[in-house]
Amino acid sequence: MKLIPVIDLMNARVVTAVSGKRHAYAPSDTPLCHSCRPREVLSALLNIYPFDTLYIADLDAIGGKGSNLQLIHTLCRDYSDITFWVDNGLSDLELLCEFARPVIGTESLVNYQQFAHLIASLPLPLLSLDYLDERFQGPASLEQRFDRWPEEIIVMTLSRVGASAGPDLTRLRRLSNLQPMRRFYAAGGVRSLLDLERLRSIGTAGALLSTALHQGAIGGREIDRFFNLRP
User: Which of 35, 40, 90, 98 is the most exposed place for a label (fewest CB within 10 A)?
Assistant: First the structure.
């Protein structure tokens, strides 16, 4: 099971998520790192554990209010041993694919046809199934049509992000049962080692982590213990 730290970017700063309410996101200042500078936050995350994959959400690009693509490019170049998964609202995808794996966030899709085109044209795309207050954010048909889903899928429960509400085990279990050949990654709500153990027990391929890392609920010792435990 893969553990993937998350960095949310807004105006070239790392911000702290609050239940998907992006208007309330504020520059990061946490026990892990009293700085909102992306490089310092990334360094602090890597001091916890040598993660090999990192997820970045460019919230300016997702919201249609700008872009942090040049900053993301610099981070990808300087940390070339890390694989970056990037959701930038489906903008500048040709350039993004030169240095990162693109994330197709369903909240940014106009229709199913756009999704089908992106799946066919992008190299190694990830799909992020986005939910807010239990409502699917994206073309309704996409949630039910599994034939074009890629192998790796993020299940993003936005209302649980930064809320310490626990991961959405029910939805993850249902999707895993419906599509056992695909790999699902939990995003939103992971609080502790126990949550990680529960996710592994239902066959989840990985988890995106932010608040638990920043607040110290999951540290290097907990991660070592998790990987040393057998399901």
Answer: 98
